[in-house]
Amino acid sequence: MKELFELIPDAKFIHVTRDPRDVVASMIKQRWCPSELDQTINLYLSIIEKSVGNTNSISTDNIITIKLEDIVRDYHNTIK
Prior knowledge:
Elements: H1 2-7, E1 13-17, H2 20-27, H3 37-56, E2 63-67, H4 68-73, H5 75-79
Parallel strand pairs: 1-2
Helix pairs in contact: 2-3
């Protein structure tokens, strides 16, 4: 995201997040992820640290964060 923002400074981003417990539960079932819970959690945390680092460098005027669970629960109001 950071690189895109450098190329297109007026870009707007929608950052969709998901409950970390759901992400880890899904990741642990993937072939490319570790099968041990503690290793999967560490992998997840390393990915999130990079993501947060990228979003922190972008103005809040250019990014909106939406929870996936909010979209599922109340699609129309969340999208508005």
